[in-house]
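Tokens for chain A. Residues wanted.
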């Protein structure tokens, strides 16, 4: 069974987009680094208006809104 890559916000202009949760998941970070992934999403404080993913810190998503 092959793994399908998840979508990410390719239009994000943030210089740190490769640190955003959508990009990390696109690259398979959640499979390769489960403990680090858990730390990013645990006790989520922000939701991305673009993809709906949630993260603890606002700089971990493209378009953060407080939860």
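Reply:
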């Amino acid at each position: 069974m092959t793994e399908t890559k998840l979508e990410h916000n390719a239009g994000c202009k943030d210089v740190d987009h490769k640190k955003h949760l959508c990009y990390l998941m696109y690259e398979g970070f959640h499979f390769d680094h489960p403990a680090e992934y858990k730390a990013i999403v645990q006790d989520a404080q922000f939701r991305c208006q673009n993809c709906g993913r949630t993260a603890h810190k606002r700089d971990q998503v493209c378009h953060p809104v407080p939860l």
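Helices lie at 21-26, 29-32, 34-41. The first helix runs from residue 21 to 26.
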